[in-house]
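Deliverable D4.2, example record:
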Amino acid sequence: MFYIDVIWHHTDPAYPVRLVSELDESRWELRKMEFYSDGRVGLACKEWASRGTDLGIEPVPPIDEINSDGEFTAKLMEPEAFESLWLEQVHNLT
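Output generated by the structure prediction step:
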């Protein structure tokens, strides 16, 4: 598994500005967090989803492909950083 952190550069409050995902070896999302400019955070995993966030219906493109689109800035994330952020956001749902 690996983890990506993607900033989406736009000003439309209907869409997230940050997408953080745990991916399997085939680049399918296993867990996902979507952060919105107004502070909302949606989460999704195979078992459940919150606040309108769902796992992707296609594998996530490679980092260099994501970064080739000027709307996005993507980077790899350490597993521990993802897990810490995930637990924090799950806790915030309750």
